[in-house]
Structure formats: structure tokens, C-alpha cells
Amino acid sequence: MNAAFPFRKFIVQTEEEHSREGVAADPPLRKAVVAAVIHNPYAGAYHDDLSAAVEFSAGLGARLGEMVVEAIGAPVLSYGKGGIAGLDGSQEHVVMFLSTAFADPFREKVGGGVAWMSSATITGPAGTPITIPLAHKDALYVRDHYDAATLYPGDAPRPDEVVVAVAAANRGRPNARLGGLAPEDAVGEDGLI
After folding, report:
1. Looking at domain 7-192, which CATH architecture does it have?
2. Could you tell me the pTM of the whole model?
3. In Å, how far are 15, 38, 115, 151 from 99, measured between CA atoms?
């Protein structure tokens, strides 16, 4: 544990959807949201230098990646990230934890991923839910993976805390039928199109 950014708790939420619109989902859609509730030493004042949090976030990304893989219990095909700053903080206090320093170790733990990670960040009182957008981990333009997962954080964040969350899914939306690229069609010679 880092003395500047101690954890108060972790939150793990999972769901498994077996049918939608009366049609069986095969395989069932599994979604997981994992969040860390962290003390925010920057709360209450403006600070130019947030680099300590960015540096800390690499280990946090790896840890949340391991936890979301365990929670989902299936290969991760979609992902997203987000968070909530308590009322004495600012939106920048969530973003500081969600940079590339966070995302690269997270991707490694979930089995790779070359696509940009969609995200959402807000400021709010304890209990404020946040909906985290999901997209395919290797091909951002695969439309049937456009989805979301909502975190209900209970007593977090307190005014001097930040909730940092990741979401993952094992597949796209059940009954997706609006066309678009398949994952194998969205990868070009030099990466994603």
C-alpha cells in the first residue's frame, strides 16, 4: 500500500445475463465492475503536480486488471474505465489515475488489448453511480460491443476520496443486430482501422 494513496476498500459487482427479449444469450453475457476506493491527498486544494498519482496508477491498473479477470471468470473481450472524485476533489483527480500508465498494465492483465479504452469521470457525493462505457478491447469500431456497466459505490466516495473503476465483459450485447464490423474485420496491417 502506498502511504499517499491508501485504499479504504474494493468493490466488486458482477452480473450474468442469460436471455434478452426472450432469446437465450449463448454464451451468457458476463459483466464485472471492480473499483478501488482511495484516499485523495489532493482534495481541498489546487495542485499543479499530480505525477505521484500517475506513477502509483501503474500498480493500480495491474491490480484492478487481475481482480476483474477473476470476477468475470471468462476471457475479457470488452473493457472500459472510469471513476468518481469526492466533493472536495476535482474531475482531474480521477483522470490522474486513468492515464496510459494505468491502462497498459491493466491491458496486460486482461489478456491484451490494442483498442483505446473508453472512459467516464465525474465528481459527486457518496453513493453517486457511474456508468462506464464498454467497447471491444481490440477493435473500437465493433458496434455489437458498445455497451456499459454501472457501478453503485455505496458509501463512496467520501469528500476526500476517489473511486477508480474498471468494467469488463466476455462478449458483445445479446441479440445485437445492427451490423457493423466483426472483430476480425476491424484489424488492418498496422493495427486498427
Report:
1. 2-Layer Sandwich (3.30)
2. 0.92
3. 27, 16, 14, 20
